[in-house]
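Before relying on records like the one below, remember that each one covers exactly one chain. Contacts with other chains, cofactors or solvent are not represented anywhere in the record.
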Amino acid sequence: MRRLAVALLAAVLALGVLTAANGAAGSREGVPRLGHVFLIIGENTDYARIDAASAPYLTNRLRPRAAWFTSYYAATHWSQANYVALVTGQFTACEQKDGGASCRQDVDNLYHQLDAAHRTWKVWLESGAAKCDTGSGGSCTSDDPCPSSGFYTTGNPPILFDDIPPSECLANDVPAGTDADGMSTFNAALAAGRVADFTTIIPNGCEDGESNCKPINDRYTQFDSFLAREVPLIQASPAYGADDLIVILYDEDERMGGLAGKNGLGSGGHTVCLVLGPRVAPGDVAATTYSYSVLRTLEDGFGVPLLGSANAVAPLPIAWR
């Protein structure tokens, strides 16, 4: 009888440990375990520029359905440093000057972390002419890395890390399409439900809001129109489920040249960030948040270690359903 009691006690304790372990795997720091995450990045836009006139889809359609962060700050200037900060929690002086592939470094990053956690990732380049594109429309073939120059050297983070080998880059860092809007391949993958756990979507230099382009000729509305076209397709995908998120943000505000170090974690300026998904309760959030808060949220949700300045911040203060 005594042996039976001991055995029962051991079983109960083991069940408690297992339950605790499962709970830890499902949530960290209040962030639920994430399924698919879609990160869409716009360029160089002040928070005050986004309103019902310049960005009606963002303002009228998405904001009421999303956690909208009214005091969100990017990491630094220029673009390359912000893309790197979003997935590593750090950046270098070289990256602050958009130094391109010369800023390649041996530093851990979210893509490599997902590899180790047996989760998948993909980067889709709207204007990519080839896999692992760094040439913004260069002449290289789809089986070889492009020359290390051009816009996508700064706006395409996986090519900048030593622990992402060329073979993996060629497999996971790809053109989004060959049609007029450059998104046909990505849209077909959405329709078929073939999406990675972490998907980064990088619009071209017009639709990301960096420059005024025909026929819209308004860079703020151009990114808004891109979102109005693509976000519903993501939400309609058979792969978009209860644990999935769409994160939309701008890499930095419109200031050039960077800010003094005394501005700390938010030296990239005040800009827009929002998160929507079935588990996200909508509403404006006034707490100050950063690019590193986004990284912290993703790392908590994917169950991987925290990198760099993600250790210095809390996750995005989302009211989870």
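The chain has two domains: 1-31, 33-312.
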